[in-house]
């Protein structure tokens, strides 16, 4: 059995056996089935394959929500980005865990391999031909002039290799969060560390992308845009995941995040814990994946000598310069608004 199949079988089995209330896609009261994307960060330790995260999601918050977020909202709730965030949360917890299997003397073991499993091709450039092949009307979408300087979702469908925002209805509020294809492309160079875990670890890289329906040509075009493609594409044949996108289905509203080693689970809706009100003054709505709580986790293991989150992020000059170089090469990378808060 191929490595891709071994990884997919482990992830899908873990997900199918996960019992959570209100976390998985449902059949709505009007009879419409929901679909969602499943993602997982998987550690490969020799012959052992261990899924660490299980996440689902296809939503992204409008950029204007950042003005009242103050670090409390999870803006990008696409499954693969949630899995990377959740793995960063795991890295924070493992840093001070004397019994950790993956962190030794404060360093992530360099003999481990990481795979990112995704049940659908990442939104953006990597998935354009896949989406086109599944359209009943294969006519290329019309070229339209961008109003914000980049392509929103699938605008200018026939143009490949472009930076794009997350897909969304053309009449919806703008979400400047970049496509998963673009974000993963940058993480090839910078690692999957967040600004927060970069304070503790050297860059940690994904070795394999495990995706069922992605052509090697599209994979190479998308992920060779920056210097060197250190991802390897693995495909699989498992059909046991039952919530894939299909005609007549609607995108799931809720997102599931589950950290397997610690059995922690949260259901998110609009970037906060399900059932919460975003502007709840008691701040009980925050997910443990929001920047504010992640910073609190960092402060438990390392002193932070900055007064605001933005000041903290910008203090890592080498990381900021590398990010700038990546964005200049990809071109037309319009930054999101700042989500700043006092530390």
Kindly describe this structure.
Pfam families: A_deamin. GO terms for molecular function: RNA binding; tRNA-specific adenosine-37 deaminase activity. It comes from Candida verbasci. The protein is α+β, with helices and mostly antiparallel strands and 343 residues long. Helices cover 25% and strands 16% of the residues. The chain is built from eight helices and 15 strands. The strands form four sheets. Strands 2, 3, 4, 9, 10, 11, 13, 14 and 15 form a nine-stranded mixed β-sheet that branches. Strands 1-12 form a two-stranded parallel ribbon.
What is the succession of H and E elements?
HEEEEEEHEEEHHEHEEEEEHHH
Quote the distance from N terminus to C terminus: 49 Å
Number of helices: 8
Percent range of helical residues: 10-25%
Largest β-sheet summary: 9 strands, mixed
| General shape | globular
Please provide the count of β strands: 15
Whole-angstrom Rg: 19 Å
Strand content: 15-25%
Task: Produce the secondary structure layout.
Layout lengths: L2 H14 L17 E2 L2 E8 L2 E4 L1 E4 L1 E3 L15 E3 H17 L7 E2 L2 E2 L4 E6 L9 H6 L46 H11 L17 E4 L4 H8 L8 E3 L15 E2 L3 E5 L4 E6 L2 E2 L17 H9 L9 H6 L2 H14 L13
Parallel strand pairs: 1-12, 9-10, 10-11
Antiparallel strand pairs: 2-3, 2-4, 2-9, 4-13, 5-6, 7-8, 13-14, 14-15
Helix pairs in contact: 4-8
């Amino acid at each position: 059995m191929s490595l891709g199949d071994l990884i997919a079988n482990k992830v899908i089995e873990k997900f199918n056996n996960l019992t959570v209330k209100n976390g998985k896609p449902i059949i709505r009261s009007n009879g419409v089935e929901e679909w969602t994307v499943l993602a997982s960060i998987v550690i490969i330790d020799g012959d052992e394959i261990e899924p660490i995260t299980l996440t689902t999601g296809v939503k992204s918050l409008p950029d204007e929500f950042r003005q009242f977020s103050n670090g409390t909202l999870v803006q990008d709730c696409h499954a693969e980005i949630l899995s990377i965030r959740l793995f960063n949360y795991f890295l924070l917890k493992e840093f001070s865990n004397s019994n950790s299997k993956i962190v030794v003397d404060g360093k992530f073991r360099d003999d481990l391999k990481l795979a990112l499993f995704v049940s659908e091709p990442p939104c953006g450039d990597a998935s354009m031909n896949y989406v086109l092949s599944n359209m009943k009307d294969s006519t290329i979408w019309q070229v339209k002039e961008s109003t914000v300087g980049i392509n929103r979702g699938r605008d200018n469908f026939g143009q490949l290799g472009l930076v794009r925002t997350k897909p969304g209805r053309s009449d919806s509020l703008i979400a400047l969060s970049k496509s998963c294809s673009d974000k993963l492309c940058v993480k090839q160079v910078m690692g999957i560390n967040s600004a927060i875990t970069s304070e503790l670890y050297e860059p940690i890289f994904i070795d394999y992308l495990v995706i069922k329906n992605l052509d090697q040509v599209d994979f190479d075009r998308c992920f060779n845009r920056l210097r060197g493609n250190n991802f390897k594409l693995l495909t699989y044949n498992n059909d046991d995941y039952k919530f894939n996108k299909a005609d007549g289905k609607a995108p799931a509203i809720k997102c599931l995040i589950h950290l397997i080693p610690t059995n922690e689970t949260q259901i998110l809706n609009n970037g906060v814990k399900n059932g919460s009100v975003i502007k709840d003054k008691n701040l009980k709505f925050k997910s443990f994946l929001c920047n504010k709580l992640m910073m609190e986790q960092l402060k438990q293991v390392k002193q932070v000598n900055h007064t605001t989150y933005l000041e903290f992020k910008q203090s890592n000059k080498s990381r900021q310069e590398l990010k700038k170089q990546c964005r200049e090469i990809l071109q037309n990378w319009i930054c999101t608004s700042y989500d700043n808060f006092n530390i």
